[in-house]
Design goal:
This protein has 21 helices and eleven strands. It is of the alpha+beta class. It has one domain: Cytochrome P450 (Cytochrome p450). Helix 5 runs antiparallel to helix 9. The radius of gyration is 24 Å and the shape is globular. The chain starts with a helix and ends in a 13-residue tail after the last helix. Pfam families: p450. Its cofactor is heme. This is Cytochrome P450 94B3-like. One of its GO terms (molecular function) is heme binding.
């Protein structure tokens, strides 16, 4: 009977895979045909911790996940493998068609969704733009305006009324305003209580959520079928993408008209969209590029800052040390927090435990063998797992699960490789990727995080509404805190100096909870 023949063929294929070395000795228990589908289903609500446990138990910190309905996946938390994937054999590990299919409807041919020559050309252009003084000055000005004109008043109002506020929501709206003003040159006013919620922000939120579900779907054929039939969430995604694309294209057309009127004179703008128009790129290429940067920048810094503020409420000794550093004379202007080592260490430690992107995947263009001996076949999904790497004792020591600034403050700043973060190899700490695809916005992200952190902490003390709650880390396109971060706000007034002095002169290296 046909079904019996089909089953026999699948069993034969599985046995061939085992004999050919496709299987690996480390990973979840697998069975013929279904692979590790049973274990995957049992752990579907705790995949991050399950993968972390499997990686920690593997002698190589690498596992192979093989299950029905998904391509074979190699997951690694081994820094040597990460360097091989992201640098040594960079050309063999592009994002690949399975990845670009998921994001292609929204990002098109933007830099985060392409490989090869198209990626290289965009990378070269954007690298030049990000190093431009005008764009950096625009970011500083926007940060200061948004923080002092909207973020601080919003927190001040909550403090005066005794209201609780969701810091995650506040920070996400703040970040969306900033990224839109820097990328598009328009102010959506997400943090302005006098304005209605912008449709563009809602469209980005909805599109990101649906695309994240695409990426986590057990069987990709399901969402592809829904897209082909224009059903359910895929119909909604198409509608939201139309809103985003039309909004950006309208801006491009308007900006071109403005440019024609001023004829390149004093009306020149510094935002990314305007600068790309000046470079003569086609409209659709400009659209895809700026949408890519909005998607990359809208939630990453807000995610890191949300977990940062929560961790400080659990480690008041670290908060006091950060306050002491803030009170020690750092500039209040955006970009003036560059030498704040304690704050920098606290942000790095936050992202070690709660990275804005929990994992990142490539797809092998050809067969390969990783440095630890793991075989990779053509078409395999190869994932380096930032969330798990931050918890590996083999990388960070026996206290890997603890929030400790000592691991950063004890490192020498001199003689660090250029791509290092606070002296740590980017292949050990790939929060900003590494190798040729290292995040171009890394420095701008730290500028924003340090400025927001110092601006808020200088003025306000935050306390969780539920002190005993341990939030759940949600690995969507960008990681979120499930349920948000609901806090009460108290104005510090002139007490910051006293609070900082209470920290003494000894750095909060251990960072243990009170």
């Amino acid at each position: 009977m046909p079904w019996l023949v089909a089953c026999c063929l699948m069993l034969l294929l599985y046995s061939v895979r085992l004999r050919s070395g496709w299987s690996h000795g480390h990973g979840p228990r697998s069975f013929p045909v279904i692979g590790c589908l049973v274990a995957f289903y049992q752990n579907r609500f705790r995949l991050l911790d399950w993968y972390t446990e499997l990686l920690a138990a593997s002698p190589t910190q690498t596992i192979v996940v093989d299950r029905l309905g998904a391509r074979r996946t190699v997951v690694t938390a081994n820094p040597v493998n990460v360097e091989h994937i992201l640098k040594g054999s960079f050309g063999n590990y592009p994002k690949g068609k399975p990845f670009t299919d998921i994001l292609g409807d929204l990002l098109g041919t933007g830099i985060f969704n392409v490989d090869g020559e198209l990626w290289y050309a965009q990378r070269k252009l954007v690298s030049h733009e990000f190093s431009a003084r005008a764009l950096r000055e625009l970011e500083f000005a926007v940060l200061e305006d948004e923080a002092r004109g909207r973020l601080v008043p919003a927190l001040g109002l909550a403090a005066a009324r005794g209201d609780a506020v969701d810091m995650q929501d506040l920070l996400r709206r703040f970040s969306f305003d900033v990224i839109c003003r820097v990328s598009l040159g328009v102010d959506p006013g997400c943090l302005d209580p006098a304005l209605p919620a912008p449709r563009l922000a809602a469209a980005f939120d909805a599109a990101a959520g649906i695309i994240a579900r695409r990426g986590s779907a057990p069987v990709a054929a399901v969402w592809k079928a829904k897209r082909a039939l224009d059903l359910g969430s895929e119909r909604r995604l198409r509608e939201e993408i139309r809103v985003i694309h039309e909004a950006v294209m309208d801006l491009i057309r308007t900006r071109k008209k403005e440019r024609a009127l001023v004829n390149g004179g004093d009306g020149r703008r510094s935002d990314l969209l305007s600068r790309m128009i000046e470079c003569g790129y086609p409209d659709e290429a400009i659209r895809d590029m700026v949408i890519s940067f909005i998607m990359a920048g809208r939630d990453t810094t807000s995610s890191a800052l949300t977990w940062f503020f929560w961790l400080l409420t659990r480690h008041r000794d670290v908060e006091r040390e950060v306050l002491r550093e803030i009170a020690g004379g750092a500039s209040h202007a955006a970009g003036g927090q560059g030498k704040m080592r304690v704050l920098h260490a606290a942000l790095c430690e936050t992202m070690r435990l709660y990275p804005p992107v929990a994992w990142d995947s490539k797809h092998a263009a050809a067969g390969d063998v990783l440095p630890d001996g793991t075989r990779v076949e053509r078409g395999d999904r190869v994932t380096y797992f930032q969330y798990g790497m931050g918890r590996m004792e083999s990388i960070w020591g026996a206290d890997a699960a603890e929030f400790s600034l000592r691991r950063w403050l004890s490192l020498p700043e001199d003689n660090a490789p250029p791509a290092a973060v606070a002296g740590v190899s980017p292949f050990k700490y790939p929060v900003f990727q590494a190798g040729p695809r290292t995040c171009l916005g890394k420095e701008m992200a730290f500028v924003q995080m340090k400025f927001v952190a110092s601006t808020v902490l200088r003025r306000f003390e935050l306390a969780p509404v539920d002190e005993g709650r341990v939030p759940v880390f949600l690995p969507l396109m960008t990681a979120h805190m499930a349920g948000g971060l609901n806090v009460t706000v108290r104005s510090r007034g002139d007490h910051i100096t006293a609070a900082a002095a209470a920290a003494g002169s000894t750095p909060a290296a251990a960072g243990g909870p009170n």
